[in-house]
Amino acid sequence: MLSLTPILGFAAALFGIGMAGIVINRKNIITLLMSIELMLLAVNTNFIAFSHFYQQMIGQVFVFFILTVAAAEAAIGLSIMVVLYRQARTISVEKLDGLKG
């Protein structure tokens, strides 16, 4: 059986990669969405690890809620990207100002 430390290290590495993706590349909306998804997966990994370690199901229930939010975020993000591409013919984040009300 794995201890908690390697799993938390893996989750920290996933979260760090997601943060690096957001900090390094702020121009491409697809990269930003993928980085946010990596960060959410890191949080899910922590919830599952602690849920297994403490033998309680509440962490796994939270994972289902987070996955639901992640699916909604992906759908909304992709729809915004389609609207942005139709108006500006680019998916650059800098062109998002043109979508104001």
Overview of this structure, please?
This protein has 101 residues and is mainly α. The mean pLDDT is 87. It has one domain: Helix Hairpins, CATH 1.10.287.3510. The longest helix has 31 residues, at 58-88. It has helices at residues 4-24, 29-54, 58-88. α1 (4-24) runs antiparallel to α2 and α2 packs antiparallel against α3 (58-88). The protein has three helices and no strands.
| CATH C-level class | Mainly Alpha
CATH topology: Helix Hairpins
Low-confidence stretches: none
Question: Mind telling me which CATH architecture this is?
Answer: Orthogonal Bundle
CA-atom Rg in angstroms: 17 Å
Structural class of the secondary structure composition?
mainly alpha
Number of strands: 0
- Shape estimate: elongated
Provide keyphrases for this structure.
single chain; 101 residues; 3 helices; mainly alpha; Helix Hairpins
Q: Which secondary structure elements does this structure contain, and how are they paired or packed?
A:
Layout: H1 4-24, H2 29-54, H3 58-88
Helix pairs in contact: 1-2, 2-3
Concise structural overview:
With about 100 residues, the chain is mainly alpha-helical. It has 3 helices and no strands.
